[in-house]
Design the sequence.
């Protein structure tokens, strides 16, 4: 796919700079930095995030501990850096599974239409009645705490959100003249959907997935906060907020504060970026 075609699908117009705006590009840059931090976390972390030193418990931010230390004397900066891995990997898996399955259901339903589409709509509507957090808690109760069970449960609960919006756009796209022209030329339904329909819906799917990433991060952080997700001593932003809540009452808010700030900034950036991509799609349509 050429750069020109890709730029048009993302809503970039000839002769103009991509219209993400200052906030959009700032969010993208910040998320890129967070992603690089997660990839190279072991190399960037100044100290061992698991090393316990009770003599250094609750150190204030300074030259030795840039963000201070937690109740076990562990470097908070190192734990925030390494914790970005689980904090990003979980939502990424949720969004990837939900987007892939939701888009497949939506495009298949829009293409087949008729009673099949009506059944899919009813099933998707019923699907909304399952709260993601409760489903994740149930999965943990059955399979035990950890990252895998909540991720799968949340991915299942996110599928109808992806399917509903993508289906509406797929139905509109299905009625466009180029689809009929491809059918007349003898292209198979699989080829039309995979080579033409899906790529034209990609900006919408990406926008949905970007916003959903932020929601998934909040949900998984809440599950870790409850002690049902990532388990100690593994660093995780949601778990760090939970472990640092007692320090707040004692006058040592560093652990919960900086981990919570990382969650807020990352979720906010994903929401802003998803909103900008969504606007691109709407303008193109």
Sequence:
């Amino acid at each position: 796919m050429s750069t020109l075609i890709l730029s048009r699908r993302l809503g970039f117009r000839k002769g103009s700079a991509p219209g993400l705006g200052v906030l959009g590009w700032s969010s993208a840059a910040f998320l890129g930095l967070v992603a690089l931090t997660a990839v190279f976390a072991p190399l960037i972390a100044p100290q061992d995030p698991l090393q316990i030193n009770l003599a250094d418990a609750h150190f204030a931010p300074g030259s030795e501990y840039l963000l201070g230390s937690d109740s076990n004397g562990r470097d908070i900066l190192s734990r925030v850096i390494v914790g970005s891995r689980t904090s990003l990997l979980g939502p990424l898996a949720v969004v990837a599974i939900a987007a892939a399955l939701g888009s497949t259901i939506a495009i298949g339903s829009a293409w087949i239409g008729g009673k099949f589409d009506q059944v899919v709509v009813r099933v998707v509507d019923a699907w909304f009645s399952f709260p993601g957090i409760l489903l994740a808690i149930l999965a943990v109760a059955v399979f035990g705490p950890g990252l895998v069970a909540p991720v799968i449960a949340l991915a299942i609960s996110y599928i109808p959100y992806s399917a509903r919006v993508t289906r509406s756009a797929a139905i509109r796209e299905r009625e466009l003249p180029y689809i009929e022209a491809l059918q007349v030329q003898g292209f198979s339904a699989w080829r039309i959907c995979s080579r033409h329909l899906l790529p034209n819906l990609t900006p919408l799917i990406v926008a949905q997935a970007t916003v959903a990433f932020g929601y998934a991060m909040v949900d998984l952080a809440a599950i870790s906060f409850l002690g049902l997700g990532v388990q100690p001593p593994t660093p995780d932003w949601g778990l760090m907020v939970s472990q640092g809540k007692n320090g707040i009452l004692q006058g040592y808010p560093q652990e919960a504060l900086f981990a919570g700030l990382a969650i807020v900034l990352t979720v906010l950036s994903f929401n802003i970026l998803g909103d900008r991509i969504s606007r691109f799609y709407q303008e193109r349509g």
User: Anything to note?
Assistant: The longest helix spans residues 76-112. The two ends are 21 Å apart (CA to CA). Residues 1-17 have pLDDT under 50 and may be disordered.
